[in-house]
Every structure is written in structure tokens, then in C-alpha cells.
Specification:
Number of helices: 19
Mean pLDDT: 87
Shape: globular
Structural class: mainly alpha
Helix content: over 70%
Strand content: under 5%
């Protein structure tokens, strides 16, 4: 079968295609898909902001739980991706199939966890942050729907990761793009009750989100069954394989914890900002929506890079690995510089999309300019962290993330809040990113010496 698919090279394109062309061909579809994802995240909040600032604040306060769902699903996906791509490079097709089946099993278990939370924990979560009744009601409605029907999210991500692991990123662009467009179209219809649909308000935004995720999941299943011939899906008589799950989570758990830390950080920062004004929390939520336009393409670049690194690590192609890393860092830094320029030049325009009041502009303009200083360092850190994960050493990424968000950012933000000056609090973000870039550089040097350099020059580019 491999001869039919690749008669000349008898291996996946990740082992022989020129690196720059390979990276672009795999990353560009993912970057486009991620941009569409960022668009629907922003559109979601743009429509919600028309319901009032309390509604926007409620959606912002829901972010830590939404981020936690994404952290668990994408972290598990990183583990699946790394194991499956490495096994593919080693021509170990039995392990390829085990990684796929057990990955789907883990996605189901993850969904069940948030199903329970949606029924019993959503309102308590909001009450732990504010006693403003309208915000609690809006937030409970929104978060309950997002969690109870999150099987679309978990299914979408696991089936997209299977496609990415075998280099078929074009199909993930389609799944994410169609799901996002569906969400964007349904947002105003369900929020404002257009075309005969009931007016659902904030709950409509959540319903549109989960509906888009379900559409993407169904497409992901279809493309895997029809086009992903390097994986054989067999579930009859399936039994969880402890060894495979352990290998998935060896990379996945650090990634999950690393991304989950962002939920802890966001929850903590929201508590600090609420001590000033709920408007500051709304600004922080808007920032997260806006920065996704900059970070999502870099994450798309990551998703294209990780299977290339893992595959060539399994195939012991050192020079292709190094070339991929250097190109990825270059592209990521360029993207972040563009984002930095936009946040510095037109912050008023960005906030205007969210129906910003005068108070929101007064707080938001300096906030966007100060926080975006961290963009100057973030591109390098994101790529290097994913390199650690691709090589099966996600603990290093975890250490960097803990240091940046918990050891530096939250304590610095709290200490700066004691000055009573809200503008000073935003400086905790670039300060923490500087700490991150120093640690990332040190760990990258260690990783190169211990893992990459011993592979020796292979001359394969």
C-alpha cells in the first residue's frame, strides 16, 4: 500500500520534501484554519458585547473553564501527535493504530468530566468570582451549554490531530474553517433571534459555538475514514492499552498542565482586576480575544512543525530537524512583530469592535499597548516549547510555563495591584515573558546538546 501512495520515496513526505516547502505546506492550512478560529472567537464576543458590558464580562469570566477544556483536548492531542508521527517515522504501524484508538478513548473520558461539571459546577464557578447577579446568570447559561455539549470540541480536536500526525493538514483547515464559519453565521441568528429562531442572548452564543464544534467533529471523522489510510481504525474488541496511554500522556500531561496553568493565571488575574472594576475584567477578556489573531497563526505553525520534528526524530534526520526549528522560529517572530505593531498603532480601533465605552477605552488603550510588549519575546518561546514536546520532553515546556505564569506573572500582578494603579498591573505580562525567553533559551541549548546533536549530521535536507 505504501508503494501506491509513495512509489519513489516509499515514505511519508515529512521524510524527504524540502523543509521550507514542507513546513509551509503543512503549516499554512493550519494557520488559515487557526485564523478562522480566532475570527469566530472575536465575532462571538463582538455580538455578545451588543447585549451589554455585563454580558461581555460574563463571557470573559468563563474563559478559564473554556481554556481548561481546550488545554486537556489539545494537550492530549499533542501526545497523540508526537507518538503517532514518531511511530510513523519508525514504520511501526501497529503503534500508529494503537495511538489513534487510545487517543479517541481518552477524548471520550475527557468529555465526560466536563459533562458533569456543566450540570453541577457552572454557577458555583461564577459565584466564586463575583456577586453581580446579571453576570452570574449570563455566565452560568453560557458555560453550562459550552461544557455539557463539549463532545464536539473533544471530538473535533482528536480527529484533527490524527490528520495532522500523518501530514494531512489541508483537511484540518477544512474542518476548522467550516466549523468556524457555521459558528459565525449562527451567532447573530441565535443571539438576537433572527430567521424565526428564538432570541437566546448569551446562551445563543454558546449554542452557536458548540454547534460549530459538532460540525467540525463530523467532518474530521469523515476525512479520517476516507483519506487517512496510514491509520487503520478498528474498535471492535478495543481495550485501553496502558503502555500507549502512558506514552501519550508522557508528552500530553505536561502540555495539559502547561495550558491549564493559563486557566489558573486568568482566574487569578480576573480576581485582581475585579478589585479595581469589572470593566478591567472585560478589557482583559477582549485582549484575549484580540491576541488570538496573532497567536493562533503561530499555533498553526506549531501544529505543522510538531509532526515534522517528531517524524524526523524517529527517522534520525538531524539536519531536517534543525532546519525546521530555525525556520519555525523565524516565521513565528515575524508574525509576532506584526501583531505588536498593530496593538501599538491602533488599540482604539481594536477596542471599538467590542462597543467599548469611554471607560473601557481609558482602561483598554494603555492595557493593549503594555501587554503587547510581551509579543516581542513570545514567538521564540512558543516554538521552542513545542520542540520540547515534539521530542517527548514536555516537562521542560511545563517548567517554563509554570515559571512564566505562576512564579512571575501572578505574584508580580498582585504586587503591582497594591500600588492602586491599574496601568502598572499590565506590566506583569512583558516582565513574565522576559523570564520565559531566558528559560526557553537555556532549555533549548540543553535539548540540542543531549538529544539533537548526538544524532549526527545526516546531510538530508
Amino acid at each position: 500500500m505504501s508503494e501506491v501512495r509513495q512509489p519513489e520515496h516509499k515514505e511519508n513526505k515529512m521524510g524527504y520534501m524540502p523543509v521550507n516547502r514542507l513546513l509551509i505546506s503543512m503549516a499554512l492550512p493550519m494557520m488559515v484554519a487557526m485564523l478562522v478560529q480566532a475570527l469566530y472567537n472575536v465575532v462571538d464576543s463582538v455580538f455578545v458585547s451588543r447585549l451589554g458590558e455585563d454580558a461581555l464580562t460574563a463571557v470573559s469570566l468563563a474563559f478559564p473553564i473554556q481554556n481548561l477544556m481546550i488545554a486537556i483536548s489539545t494537550g492530549t492531542g499533542v501526545g497523540i501527535n508526537a507518538l503517532l508521527s514518531k511511530s510513523l517515522g519508525e514504520k511501526n504501524f501497529e503503534q500508529v493504530n494503537k495511538a489513534a484508538a487510545n487517543g479517541i478513548f481518552l477524548a471520550v473520558l475527557s468529555y465526560l468530566l466536563f459533562l458533569v461539571f456543566g450540570f453541577v459546577g457552572a454557577r458555583a464557578f461564577f459565584l466564586s468570582q463575583t456577586d453581580i447577579g446579571s453576570i452570574v446568570d449570563y455566565g452560568t447559561d453560557y458555560l453550562s451549554i459550552c461544557t455539557i455539549f463539549s463532545f464536539g470540541l473533544f471530538g473535533e480536536i482528536v480527529f484533527e490531530r490524527l490528520l495532522q500526525s500523518t501530514g494531512k493538514t489541508f483537511y484540518t483547515m477544512i474542518t476548522q474553517g467550516v466549523g468556524a464559519v457555521f459558528n459565525i453565521v449562527m451567532d447573530p441568528i441565535l443571539i438576537f433571534g433572527l430567521l424565526g429562531f428564538p432570541k437566546m442572548g448569551v446562551a445563543g452564543a454558546a449554542a452557536a459555538t458548540v454547534a460549530g464544534q459538532m460540525v467540525a467533529m463530523l467532518l474530521g471523522i469523515y476525512f479520517n475514514l476516507k483519506n487517512n489510510h496510514e491509520i487503520t481504525f478498528k474498535f471492535k474488541g478495543f481495550r485501553p492499552d496502558a503502555s500507549t496511554i502512558k506514552r501519550i500522556y508522557a508528552v500530553g500531561v505536561p502540555s495539559i498542565v502547561m495550558a491549564s496553568i493559563s486557566s489558573v493565571m486568568t482566574f487569578g488575574v480576573n480576581k485582581i482586576l475585579m478589585s479595581f472594576t469589572s470593566t478591567a475584567t472585560a478589557v482583559f477578556g477582549v485582549y484575549f480575544k484580540l491576541q488570538s489573531f496573532i497567536f493562533m497563526p503561530v499555533f498553526g505553525l506549531n501544529n505543522g512543525m510538531v509532526p515534522i520534528i517528531s517524524y524526523n526524530y524517529g527517522a534520525r534526520h538531524r539536519d531536517r530537524m534543525v532546519h525546521t526549528i530555525k525556520l519555525s522560529i523565524f516565521y513565528a517572530v515575524c508574525i509576532m512583530l506584526v501583531g505588536f505593531a498593530i496593538f501599538q498603532i491602533v488599540p482604539q480601533v481594536l477596542l471599538g469592535f467590542f462597543n467599548a465605552s469611554q471607560d473601557m477605552l481609558v482602561i483598554g488603550v494603555p492595557a493593549l499597548r503594555i501587554i503587547s510588549l510581551s509579543f516581542l519575546f513570545a514567538g521564540f518561546c512558543i516554538i521552542v516549547g513545542s520542540v520540547f514536546q515534539a521530542l517527548g520532553n514536555g516537562v521542560l515546556s511545563l517548567i517554563v510555563s509554570v515559571a512564566r505564569q505562576l512564579v512571575v506573572l501572578l505574584p508580580v500582578a498582585f504586587l503591582m495591584s497594591l500600588t492602586g494603579n491599574l496601568d502598572v498591573v499590565w506590566f506583569s505580562f512583558p516582565i513574565s515573558e522576559i523570564a520565559s525567553v531566558v528559560l526557553s533559551a537555556l532549555f533549548m541549548r540543553h535539548t540540542y546538546k543531549k538529544i539533537i546533536a548526538p544524532l549526527g549530521h545526516d546531510g538530508v535536507k
